[in-house]
Amino acid sequence: MNYCIAYTVLCNTGLVRTKNQDNFWCMGEFLKSENDGVADPITGTADTKRIPAFAVFDGMGGEQQGEVAAYIAANTFDVGYKESPKRDVKQFLLDACANMNNAICVHIKEQHLRSSGATAAILMFGKRDIYVCNIGDSRIYQFSDDTLTQISHDHSETGMIDRKPPLTQHLGIPETEFVIAPYVAKGLYEKGDKYLICSDGLTDMVSEAEIAKTMTENSSIEQGAEVLLQKALEAGGHDNITLILCEIRRQGLQIFNKNIVGGASK
């Protein structure tokens, strides 16, 4: 059985931030470092023969030039994806994280910055396998049989009650200080499974229970993504909000025209 991945992407500055420091990578599309998100959803389908990939990068708002760090991550991933044969997907993901980290570190040094950084959450799909990779606290969820499960791993300190826990890992850490260790996992997918990749602008505003409820009540990924974004905005929209919602479909059942809107880095 052949499968394809239907996807929809939303990226919104939110209601409080004056600058969008989020970015994403969606089958070769990503944003410039200076951007206002995307005005309309980006939708399409990808054939699993191409080993499709989707990623969210969240520039660290408290750091200098977080939007540039997120852009560097997306651009570096783009170069690596186009150059790599991706026969060993796990190794590709580890190499991609190392390359993104190094590229941001070079930028920090060249610009004489105190620090800068970004999180990364990446999904790649083989013919039957799914590959999960993340560093930081941008999350990846699987929604299957009406159950929402986080399949990424938060790199953040535990035990914090009265404030958001600081990150223990992110992109933009020099190897002389700390060797990053991205979380990488592999699993199987089934037709009808849905996957959500998002920045903490969503998960800080919308509970996992509300995310699951939204996924249950909205059968289309386009509608589900829009509802999730609106819930984050209605809760205050304190941060930039980026989300990618994917669905596993049987190849040939439904064809989508790719609709790219927003500033791409071409």
Task: Walk me through the structure.
There is one protein chain. This protein is of the alpha+beta class and 266 residues long. Helix content is 26%, strand content 28%. It contains five helices and eleven strands. The protein has helices spanning 66-83, 89-110, 200-203, 208-217, 221-234, and strands at residues 3-12, 22-26, 42-47, 53-59, 118-125, 129-135, 139-144, 147-150, 183-188, 194-198, 241-250. A six-stranded antiparallel beta sheet has the order 3-1-11-10-7-8. A hairpin with a 2-residue loop joins β7 (139-144) and β8 (147-150). α1 (66-83) runs antiparallel to α2 (89-110). The longest helix is centred in the middle third of the chain and has 22 residues, at 89-110.
Task: Specify the overall morphology.
Answer: globular
Report low-confidence residues grouped into runs of 5 or more.
253-266
Mean pLDDT: 92
| Number of DSSP helical runs | 5
- Report how far apart the termini are: 35 Å
- Number-wise, the strands total 11
Radius of gyration: 17 Å
Strand order of the largest sheet: 3-1-11-10-7-8
Structural class: alpha+beta
The proportion of residues forming helix, as a percent range, comes to: 25-40%
Question: How does the major sheet shape up?
Answer: 6 strands, antiparallel
As a percent range, the share of strand residues is 25-35%
Order of helices and strands: EEEEHHEEEEEEHHHE
